[in-house]
Amino acid sequence: MARRNPTGDFLQFTVGGCLFGGGLFLFLNQVSVSSAWHSSGFRRSWGGFRGWDPMALMPFGTPGLGLLMVPLGLGVCLLFAGTYQRWARLLVWGSLAALVVGVLNSVRISFIPATLWQLTMQVVMIGSGGGLMFRSLGPYNDQGRDRGGPSQAGSASRDPSDPNAEEAATANLRWELDELKRRLDEQQG
């Protein structure tokens, strides 16, 4: 088993992060966000009509969010006045939550057409970058090196009077236990 290099792992994590971030940027760059305002019951597109719009049931677009400013203003007024603190917080948080829901309800998200090659490259960049980042985060032992096999632990003498013999035996036992756990996981998986 090869030794781990912290500098190489940092470089690998950095390259992986760049690949992941670049792929995610390119993927999210293919997203178009618009409001839900429609002037008629039919959706229009570049080539003509695309069909009936469910937003036509509300002929003036989404419900007005301006009316939600009244309880928000009243709640802020009560907060600064120092009276009815529970009601003030309820008004402020309730109106803010309703505003967020109203804004999210009026936003329409769609994907800009892309070629299969572009989509494939974006997914490969995201996947390979994530894989490199996870691979660089592998486990280290206390000395900063990758966990080794019995060749490192069995190199010390087996003399009981030797102070390194106990450490070598402990390291060998730990390696054998890790090896058994790995084999059990392979059999169960």
Main traits of this protein?
single chain, 189 residues, mainly alpha, 3 domains, two-stranded antiparallel sheet, two-stranded antiparallel ribbon, elongated
Q: How does this model look, in words?
A:
The radius of gyration is 31 Å and the shape is elongated. β2 and β3 (48-52) form a beta hairpin. It has 189 residues and is mainly alpha-helical. It folds into 3 domains: 1-30 and 112-139; 38-111, no CATH class; 150-189. It has helices at 6-28, 69-81, 85-106, 116-136, 150-153, 163-188; strands spanning 31-35, 42-45, 48-52, 107-111. α1 (6-28) packs antiparallel against α4 (116-136). The longest helix has 26 residues, at 163-188. The strands form 2 sheets. A two-stranded antiparallel ribbon has the order 1-4. A two-stranded antiparallel ribbon has the order 2-3. Mean pLDDT is 77; it is low at 149-157. The chain contains 6 helices and 4 strands.
Question: Would you summarize the structure shown here?
Answer:
With 189 residues, the protein is mostly helical. Helices cover 58% and strands 10% of the residues. A two-stranded antiparallel sheet has the order 1-4.
